[in-house]
Amino acid sequence: MNEFFSRYGEQIISRGYEHLLLTVLAMTLAVIIAVPLGIFLARSQYRTLVTTIMGIVSIIQPIPSLALVAFVVVFFKLLGLPTIGLAPGLVSLVAYALLPVLRNTYTGIRQVDPSVTEVAIGMGMTPRQRLFSVELPLALPVIMAGVRIATVWTIGVATLVSLVGAGGLGDLIFKGLRSYHMDSVLAGAAPAALLALVLDWALGALEQWLAPSHRAQ
Amino acid sequence: MIRFDKVCKVFPNGTKAVREISFEVAEGETLVLLGTSGSGKTTTMKMVNRLIEPSSGTITVGDKDILSQNPVQLRRSIGYAIQGIGLFPHMTVGENIGVVPRLVGWSSDKINSRVSELLELVGLSPPEQFRDRYPTQLSGGQRQRIGVARALAADPPVILMDEPFGALDPITREQLQDEFIELESRIQKTILFVTHDIYEAVKMGDRIAILDQGEVQQIAPPRDIVESPANEFVDRFLGPHRFQLSLMTVRLSHLIKSSSLSLSEPEEAAETPKKRLFVRNSLIEALDLFKEVQKEKMPVWDQDKQVGVLSMEHLLSAVGTAFQRAGVEQ
Question: What is the ipTM of this complex?
Fold first, then answer.
């Protein structure tokens, strides 16, 4: 055990840090893009257009993550951008995390009881006040569920982007697999799993803190 | 004061929901819009705070044309209460009541004391016990009381109520109706009240406007509607229980005015009665009260002044007259 840590401890820390950074960065970008877009789509008047967009979005979802990473690399190549390094890795992660957050934001806002929205208008809230003090708080549990799913997935996909040289705990896993060093595989896989559990729990705590006990009854 | 002048509403799909409606709700009056679903009553009400924009005609609130005002400002100046689910589930009772005061920029101290005042007013005291609860932690009747308190929060002169007691069980509903009538006599608001229930309408309304297919069929005080329906539709709407409705709509004051109910001279009461009989009470309320106190005679009050003493015998003969009249008209 001591030998394991003296051998891999430093790498676990540095690769784990990279992994966490990739995840947080990708999730931040995904939330910044997907939440406003989801709100915009949910409140848009053009229902048929919106339904079409949400339909297309749902098609992208089942693409296997490894295939998505590969597509991004091909896409980068076509655009003449570097296909190795942080950029293609991050783009793959964001693309994959975008969808659950977008879909849940859209659904979350759409499922707010229309009579609650109407009473908010009837009491004299502006569209902005209605969004921030009624629609978003009521949609928050659904949006947060999307963010949690996306975060757990992103931690998984982030092990794959080691293949395009974006770093992370995937480095240890793939190195171990190639050289048949199971302890190296474990040094990458176990912290990744742990990271997923910890972040999921932290986001759950964040949700509780943001939306107090009205659902607890 | 609310005035409708030749107001029409045609929806984009061509449905004529409201056709040339004209009426007025006087200051301090409660006008009930009564009709079946699809009669245009809710559409009519929602045009007042511009949740639905009229297609033509003029609506004035106070003395201002509503279309000349900013809709957001207009809505903040009109109280709005709807059935059950209208409370914001993620806000506490205090936050729910404080929505409009917060929108119009009251200080939090002022909002807090207003919330306490309103909770007491709607019978939820002590306020500290209710202020921080969430709507899911309240009974249906309590939620409805909060809905009423919220509509009154910024002290608007005009209040719109869309079946505010609709989702309650009959006993709670009746209790809330009675409380609201009592409350309303103290606060004097101009109220537009929507319901499909004729019994609720005769109970709550100073006047009733019966709507069908987007047109006013009759607009009159409850007693006039019950005793002289303007057309066949109104007649059918009243249903078979004419006698019951007239017991609810004939008030002691009506009978005293037409001298068909005789009171004996006021007498000094030996004790202050817990329940008082008022001239505004209907025959059925008078009967209920006599039954409750188990007395042969009761003093009748107009506000704080005793106007005379009513005997059970005289009350019963007035009920008999009402029964004959209801019989004759059918």
Answer: 0.83
